[in-house]
Specification:
The chain is α+β, with helices and mostly antiparallel strands. It has 2 domains: about 170 residues, Deoxyuridine 5'-Triphosphate Nucleotidohydrolase, Chain A; about 50 residues. Strands 1, 2, 3, 4, 6, 7, 8, 9, 10 and 12 form a 10-stranded antiparallel sheet that branches.
């Protein structure tokens, strides 16, 4: 294994004369001045997702991959998707946001990539990956970033910022099957996807419970929040009918119990 220098990077980057099994493709092509001695700068894209706590039971229940059997259920419960836009993205202290690079990267079977941050941003406490720095040979798509603000103050980032860099390394022998062709690859063909597919790991099969339908979750969540707000308002009012307040409390408890039961019900 050896890392590619800037000379070697320019030799294999977007060169039609280089065979496809050795060629690295990045679109849109990076400016030549953004190729470092052994890395290529990557810019922040516009699509991001905030990790959010479940909006019921005050986030008491943890993320449990055995309780989700569909991508839709995981997306609905744990992510808030949006575009950054020209106003930028404000990262609160200790907040983690999942993002994508502006560039799409395709790696051949003989080359893998390592993604890391840039010094200017790390000096302000901004991290661009948590554990996923490796990009397998055969990767094709945008690069997933995990933006983490380790600073005690908020940080703003904007689309187009050169927020990360990728180093390329050549394997001694090309792998037999690239990530885009391996049967066990969960994200092949969906390299732009942000949401986790942790629940599809083979060691979790057989332990899966019924995945909650987003529509059912949303109905129960909304009902619970509305009933809670009405009950709280009633309790602070004078002259409110005690029977009505009791009925609201009972209804709130019933909906809460239904919400918990839908989570714990097994197949």
């Amino acid at each position: 294994m050896s890392f590619l220098s800037d000379v070697e990077i320019r030799e294999v980057l977007n060169k039609e004369t280089v065979p496809e099994d050795r060629r690295v493709e990045i679109t849109p092509p990076p400016d030549d001045k953004h190729i470092g001695p052994c890395s290529i700068d990557l810019r922040l894209g516009d699509d991001v997702a905030r990790l959010r706590n479940r909006p019921w039971l005050f986030g008491f229940l943890p993320f449990d991959p055995t309780r989700y059997g569909s991508l839709a259920a995981a997306q609905h419960n744990w992510y808030k998707f949006f575009k950054i836009g020209e106003r930028g993205l404000r990262l609160k202290p200790n907040e983690t946001v999942i993002a994508l690079t502006k560039e799409r990267v395709r790696l051949p079977r003989g080359i893998f990539g390592l993604v890391t941050g840039r010094s200017s941003y790390s000096r302000m406490g901004l991290e661009v990956h948590l554990t996923q720095d490796l990009r397998q040979p055969g990767h094709a798509g945008h690069i997933l970033l995990q933006l983490k603000n380790n600073a005690p103050f908020a940080i703003k980032v904007y689309p187009g910022m050169r927020i990360a860099q990728i180093m390329l390394a050549r394997l001694g022998v090309p792998c037999t099957t690239g990530y885009d062709q391996a049967a066990a690859s969960k994200y092949k063909g969906e390299a732009d996807g942000i949401a986790t597919k942790w629940f599809l790991d083979e060691e979790l099969k057989g332990r899966q419970l019924i995945s909650r339908q987003p529509a059912v979750d949303q109905l129960l969540n909304s009902s619970l929040m509305i009933l809670t707000a009405i009950t709280a308002f009633s309790l602070y009012q004078t002259g409110i009918n005690k029977t009505s307040t009791t009925a609201l409390l009972v209804a709130t408890i019933v909906v809460l119990l239904l919400r918990v039961l839908t989570y714990f019900r097994a197949t």
